[in-house]
């Protein structure tokens, strides 16, 4: 069977608090706002991936419900991950597995956005992580 799709165009996230989501994705992760409708939606991009935030949720996200398990973003090096970890800790963002770690050829960090959506930021480390601890990775349920 031939493929019907050609990759991901964007990821749409339902959020309870649109203002908190916009601030988190722009201030912590460095996304740029590229569109949306005031009070209803915000379209953001990191230059490669577009995420659309929609004020539609009545409660925070949970891994116990069917839907998005996590959303992973890619970075180019360990230094960027360390800078991100510092930003997350400065804002008291809930971080899983005690911070940066290594799992299955990747180095990364797992955390939650203000609406309880589980996020990952990762890079393929090529075998040298400077001694990062092994962590649960995306299969974990923490």
TrEMBL record:
> What domain of life is recorded for the organism?
Bacteria
Q: Which GO terms describe its molecular function?
A: lactoylglutathione lyase activity; metal ion binding
What organism does the UniProt record list as the source? Tumebacillus flagellatus
Q: Which UniProt keywords apply?
A: Metal-binding
Where's the VOC domain? 7-124
Q: What is this protein called?
A: VOC domain-containing protein
Q: Which InterPro entries match?
A: Fosfomycin_Res_Enzymes, Glyas_Bleomycin-R_OHBP_Dase, Glyas_Fos-R_dOase_dom, Glyoxalase_1_CS, VOC_core
Indicate whether Repeat appears among the record's keywords: no
In terms of PANTHER family, this protein maps to:
FOSFOMYCIN RESISTANCE PROTEIN FOSX, LYASE, PUTATIVE-RELATED-RELATED
Keyword Kinase assigned to the entry: answer is no
